[in-house]
């Protein structure tokens, strides 16, 4: 369970996407200015699992110009704890076995044992999404690192505070609001071909991310079959983006801030870039 919680802390939320919009410039880093801001803040699209977490010079320069780092989560919330252990479990005693046929459960049991080297009994009460998160360790041919960890490291070196846009409780609640049945469907689809389809998609995604092409990344993820993304995108992405905007505005007004959120939250009609522009801010790509 300790290993499981550690991986969850690293990879809590994946990319998501919405309907096609006007393509944005190829950039992961965006400057936020205007609308009463005395100094610009910066918005950076992260990826929660990658082989190389080295930061581009322009990102380091943006960090130098800002005085606080704000990620999706306050890092103090990411320490494995009894509270986290309870929140990864499904409500009302629901189990994976309740949500699957005998044949599906047996296939999942075999996968969890062979690929994740974990007993199915340990996974049976876990929200299906977080078992999907565990499979990320099998999609890479390298040790997984996160850009958030590198941002945190640099922030601490500069004696800057690291804050969050939402709480751990808010993030875990998302996967109580999204039906467990939908999550289990995605899990079974991934397990059905031993992650071959997922690995192909992740390689394509990483190529687009490394080229900073967030518009095509957005479209790739939109077209990827997913029960959760197809039906519950508003919970997974849109609603969260809208809740973040007042917080981003307040932080940016108080001091020049560096915001690091999953790159899938940047583009789209309800993406953070467009929502900030609607609020009157100038949001432009940093080349």
Automatic annotation (TrEMBL):
Origin superkingdom: Bacteria
Record-linked PROSITE patterns: PROKAR_LIPOPROTEIN
A Pfam family that the UniProt record links to this protein: TraB_PrgY_gumN
PANTHER family: CYTOPLASMIC PROTEIN (PTHR40590:SF1), CYTOPLASMIC PROTEIN-RELATED (PTHR40590)
Official protein name in the record: TraB/GumN family protein
Organism: Leptobacterium flavescens
């Amino acid at each position: 369970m300790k290993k499981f919680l550690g991986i969850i802390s690293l990879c809590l939320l994946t990319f998501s996407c919405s309907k096609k919009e006007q393509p944005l410039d190829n950039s992961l880093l965006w400057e936020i200015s205007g609308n009463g801001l005395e100094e610009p803040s910066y918005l950076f699209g992260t990826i929660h699992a990658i082989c190389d977490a080295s930061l581009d010079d322009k990102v380091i320069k943006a960090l130098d110009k800002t005085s606080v780092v704000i990620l999706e989560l306050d890092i103090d919330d990411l320490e494995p704890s009894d509270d986290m252990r309870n929140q990864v479990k499904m409500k009302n005693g629901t189990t994976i076995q309740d949500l699957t046929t005998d044949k599906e459960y047996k296939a999942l049991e075999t996968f969890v044992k062979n690929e994740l080297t974990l007993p199915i009994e340990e996974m049976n009460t876990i929200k299906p999404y977080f078992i999907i998160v565990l499979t990320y360790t099998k999609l890479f041919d390298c040790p997984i690192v996160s850009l958030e960890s590198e941002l945190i490291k640099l922030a601490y070196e500069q004696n800057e505070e690291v804050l969050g846009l939402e709480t751990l409780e808010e993030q875990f609640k998302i996967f109580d609001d999204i039906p467990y049945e939908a999550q289990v469907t995605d899990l079974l689809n991934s397990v059905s071909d031993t992650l071959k389809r997922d690995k192909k998609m992740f390689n394509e995604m990483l190529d687009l991310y490394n080229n900073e092409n967030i518009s095509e990344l957005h479209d790739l993820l939109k077209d990827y079959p997913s029960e959760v993304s197809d039906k519950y995108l508003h919970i997974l992405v849109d609603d969260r983006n809208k809740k973040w905007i007042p917080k981003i505005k307040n932080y940016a007004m108080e001091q020049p801030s560096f915001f690091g959120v999953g790159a899938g939250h940047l583009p789209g009609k309800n993406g953070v870039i467009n929502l900030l522009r609607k609020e009157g801010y100038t949001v432009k790509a940093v080349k």
